[in-house]
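Final report, results section. Input specification for complex C-07:
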Amino acid sequence: MPHAVTFQKVSRHFGSVRAVDAVDLEVEAGEFFAMLGPSGSGKTTCLRLIAGFEQPTSGHIEIFGETAEGVPPYRRNVNTVFQDYALFPHLNVADNVAYGQMIRGVGKAERLRDAEAALEMVKLPGYGARKPGELSGGQRQRVALARALVNKPKVLLLDEPLGALDLKLREQMQEELKTLQKALGITFVFVTHDQGEALSMADRIAVFNHGKIMQTGTPEEIYRRPKTRFVADFVGSSNVLSPAFTRRLGGPAEWASLRPEDIRIGAEGGHEARVTGSSFLGNATRLTLDMAGEKLTVLLPAGSAVPAPGASVRFSWEPSALHLMGTET
Amino acid sequence: MTAAAAPGAILPGRGGLGGALSDAFWRNPKLLLFVMLTPPLLWLGIIYLGSLFALLIQSFFSIDEFSGLVVREFTLKTYGELLRPSNLDIIVRTVTMAGLVTIASAIIAFPIAYYAARYAKGRWKAIFYLGVMLPLWSSYLVKVYAWKLILAKEGILSWIFAKLHLTPLIDGWLALPVVGGNSLSVSPTGTFLVFVYVWLPFMILPVQAALERVPTNLLEASADLGASPRQTFSHVLLPLALPGVIAGSIFTFSLTLGDYIIPQIIGTSHLFIGMAVYAHQGTAGNIPLAAAFTVVPVVIMGIYLWLAKRAGAFNAL
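Structure output:
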């Protein structure tokens, strides 16, 4: 079975800006794939290249084994859930959802029945007669999802779909999207700048920076074994240790990543550092330590004793927690 | 810091009438609105709507045919006169012309407005506005007389057609009944061309404003859902730009309905509503009939807007 999406040395330049720079990418059929990166890292442009809104400056794109460059968006069996939903304001919810089928010439009764079924799937039954303007952000998001899924696309593209929702709603939608994707078996390609979202939802993640993919892998791999300083820092805000610092802590002279939650604070053993600040996060407390000019972040689980700023503490970690990333990153 | 220099949590009032007024307006925003709106509303209500109402009343008076004096008694006689074949002819001619001018303006304006709204940036946008507005800055009469020369039998247009060996095309068109005439400058075709030229900016600007408000991602969403550019145009772009087209058509339609100079300078001797009003209130002294003629465009515009609303033209607003 061919890959759902294949990029071979794909670039997209806007003038002198290399939004996407020689990207190689393979999305497996049926997987939940996340493209993670800061804004301007090229992840959204990659999504738009799959949708067909952008054409590559160079390189080759395949969707389920078929060449995609030069093919307009309306001839791709790929649907998009837009960041700000892009619902048609002059059509009611049912006609929005039925739009794709209306374009394909499906009869009115049939397409409205399918639209209602799709609305039921996203838990908005009976909302067909309303206008998009009468819905809340979360409801609009569901309508946009229904409008895309009702066409049974080969690939569903989601462009930061949860960005505008509040935290509680976002967590609920993450759950539902994941369930929906498993139930339908459709390949999802999901763009986000929220590493927590990518880690919790995706089967595999590609981490973008400056138009390039830094690392591709499962959430576990990306989190536990970041290949570069950027990935370590961007995913889970790890402590990135310089080769000199790693050496002082008793490791080899290499870049290393040490997760804040892997550091333990104790009375003896390990190394000594001074507490420079602490902030209460609810489920944990974040401490910042200073060890002779080098900064370290430590995440203390809730309930543990929090040393006061200025205090001298000793810290240590399990040997396996220190992840080495080589000398050149 | 001394106690005098340290400001307290609440600053003292600014003092004077200005300070008191500022505070009063802040506490009662409606008072400010009232003060701001009263003069223009008085102007609009009395000078504008009042005179329109006076006109409406005039149309229900009649003229004594023997003495030529206005009889100030309520009657529908004047409206009966309006429906005489010769007057009905004027109304039908004017409304047809206004309709055709509006349709032609919309068709010409849309691509220009689309370009300006979607593609023109920075300097090109400035050039667009200048190009559209510039003709509005020069005198209307100068433009109309310029067109008379362009369209005349010995004018530049027939000269160009002659150079291109296309003279039979013009002659053939002019030989047609209804639209033809001795030359373009004395044919309904000429009247139509000049109307379209003069009112086009009034269509371009509102359509451009409406198109500018259509988010690009709606067009992308439509393509994403399988719609070809033509389908996107008819299902998304046009419905969303329709309020702008309607706004523009109100201008082109009503301006054509009321104009009496263009058909007088360029066109046949057949009258348009504006010319009839001009003739009846001036030389003929038949103010009631002139008033009744003036009511016609008002009624037509009312019906037009009602139909547009029923057709859902304003749903996107």
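The longest strand of chain A covers residues 17-27. The two ends of chain A are 35 Å apart (CA to CA). This concludes the modelling results for the funded period.
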